[in-house]
Design a protein that fits this description.
mainly alpha; two-stranded antiparallel sheet; 8 helices; 2 strands; about 70% helix; globular
């Protein structure tokens, strides 16, 4: 089976990210209310996405009267975002045999023998994603940098192999791959 083209794989991944960026705050709002979610995500963007942990003290002083604290919001948003990503990819990779974006561009996820993936393959892939996301979210504190830098670093490390092998680091570790749907 022929591997999915680099262009279609990239576009499929981009569509997945757009879906996640739209669905995540929407579902968060449904569960926790719009005003609470908006203030939490606003605080997260101001204190975590574009600034380093060492600058949180200044943000914390500015919003001292709000609860929860910026570090609690940071933790909450990251944990729920990781869980949402795991659910998104696990559900679609098991149900459609591809992420939604890659399915739109004709990709299908198979194991190393080009056989249909099983639930264990999907769970293994997503456990690898979970481990990598937790490790990278912790790097933010070790490097004292913003999540924006960590997100770029994450995708560079995970996706650079795609340019050479048409397989991401996750594909390589989990022994799966995206191929053209026949």
């Amino acid at each position: 089976m022929e591997l999915m083209s680099l262009t279609k794989r990239f576009l499929g991944s981009a569509i997945d990210k757009v879906f996640i960026l739209i669905l995540y705050p929407t579902l968060l709002s449904l569960f926790f209310g719009g005003f609470k979610t908006a203030s939490m995500l606003g605080t997260f963007v101001g204190s975590g996405l574009i600034s380093s942990p060492s600058s949180q003290t200044y943000v914390e002083e500015y919003i001292r009267k709000t609860t929860p604290s910026t570090s609690e919001i940071d933790f909450y948003v990251i944990i729920t975002f990781i869980i949402f990503n795991l659910l998104y990819y696990t559900i679609f990779e098991f149900w459609l045999k591809a992420s939604l974006g890659k399915k739109i561009f004709g990709g299908v996820l198979v194991d190393s023998n080009n056989d249909k993936i099983k639930i264990i393959d999907v769970l293994m892939r997503n456990c690898i994603v979970l481990i990598l996301m937790v490790i990278f979210s912790r790097f933010r504190y070790y490097l004292d940098t913003s999540y924006m830098v960590i997100i770029i670093l994450f995708f560079m490390i995970v996706d650079i192999p795609v340019f050479f092998t048409k397989k991401s680091l996750i594909d390589i570790i989990s022994r799966t791959k995206y191929v053209k749907n026949v």
